[in-house]
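haha ok so turns out i had the wrong file open the whole time. this is the CORRECT one, sorry everyone. sequence first:
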Amino acid sequence: MDREYNVLFLCTGNSARSLIAEAIMTREGIGHFKAFSAGSQPASEAHPYPLDILKTANHDITGLRPKDWNEFATPDAPTMDFVFTVCDAAANETCPVWPGQPMTAHWGLPDPAQFEGTEAEKRVIFSDTYRMLTNRISVFVNLPLASIDKLTLQTRLDEIGHPQSEQAS
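then structure:
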């Protein structure tokens, strides 16, 4: 890769899944990918469980916060190369027009914040979300972007978000 690609992860509240993805991509994609996350209706603050998981896994969470997706749809915003929705609600919303016409894919995961159970059970669900996003992002950052045509790349991006990719990886 001869340049750094900008990647935006979207989720309605931008308080858990998309923030987890941003932190994972920030570390896994260092030097090749710059990660961002946002939501259509961002929460006032990040959910505490993903922040705990990220800290435990030694991710830098400095500045990790829910953001409005309109921050990334302005002419002076970074031009996104890839935009991934990680929740079904965001995937079904009308997204802003992203400058640069990035490649998009839906990598939907169940909302761990909606899970009902004990604190331990909830933390397991958040850990599973972290694991699945780590798997997907690992596959993505290892794609041969410089030598793959757009149609094949789009197919691969869609496959990464398909639930069977979790079982195969």
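The chain has six helices and four strands.
again sry for the mixup
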